[in-house]
Design goal:
Blueprint (H helix, E strand, L loop, with lengths): L10 H4 L2 H14 L13 H11 L19 E4 L18 E4 L1 H7 L21 E4 L4 E4 L5 H13 L5 H15 L14 H4 L3
Antiparallel strand pairs: 1-2, 3-4
């Protein structure tokens, strides 16, 4: 997970996210099988573009890059919209993140209060994780506090951050990064920036 800063909520969403969340909550209470849709007031395309700019077109969870070319540009609800206690947050700016298909399918509607997100105040990769350059895995930092190790374990588990395909791609991306053109290639051109930054 690569740190990023969330910009201020856009005015159009500040004005309507609570009402949209209440509308969704009411629809779910009336019909528990109600299928979530992005209401028009939400301005999905504009919101998605702002969120993608926030992460430099990377998945907010695994940091896979080039969303749109490598994966659909989906929006993930950090706190799952399907859970009754989070229905009202379905349109909240702070609950929405750009996400790759893989992270969305791994997490589905799972959630744990320990789950990390990289725009959390004070988040730093090394406070929770270490990179294993031989295996391509990210692991809980053995020098971190027990709470931070637990949070790292939960995040790795719920987002499937060490599934085989990801460890393989991380190693390939590391090789590509080490062979980069130092004059033109920048870190944001690569996936898994947290894995590459100390390489």
């Amino acid at each position: 997970m690569y740190p990023f800063l969330r910009p201020v909520c856009p005015d159009y969403l500040t004005e309507c996210w609570e009402a949209l969340g209440l509308r969704y909550e009411a629809a779910k209470q009336k019909d528990p099988k109600y299928k979530f849709v992005w209401f028009a007031d939400f301005q999905y395309d504009q919101t998605r573009e702002l969120l993608l700019a926030m992460t430099n077109n990377h998945c907010a969870f695994c940091d896979g890059g080039d969303l749109g070319a490598m994966s659909r540009e989906t929006l993930e609800h950090f706190r799952p919209k399907s859970r009754p206690e989070f229905h009202r947050l379905a349109y909240q700016w702070e609950n929405l993140y750009p996400c790759c298909d893989r992270c969305q399918s791994e997490k589905l509607e799972k959630y744990d209060d320990a789950l990390l997100i990289a725009d959390e105040a004070g988040y730093a990769f090394e406070d929770y994780f270490i990179a294993d350059y031989l295996t391509g895995e990210i692991l809980p930092n053995p020098l971190a506090s027990s709470v931070n190790q637990y949070r790292a374990e939960k995040t790795i588990e719920l987002y499937g951050l060490n599934v085989d395909v990801r460890t393989t791609i991380r190693k390939k991306e590391l090789k590509r990064y080490l062979q980069r053109d130092l004059d033109t290639d920048i870190l944001d051109d690569f996936s898994y920036r947290y894995f590459l930054i100390d390489a």
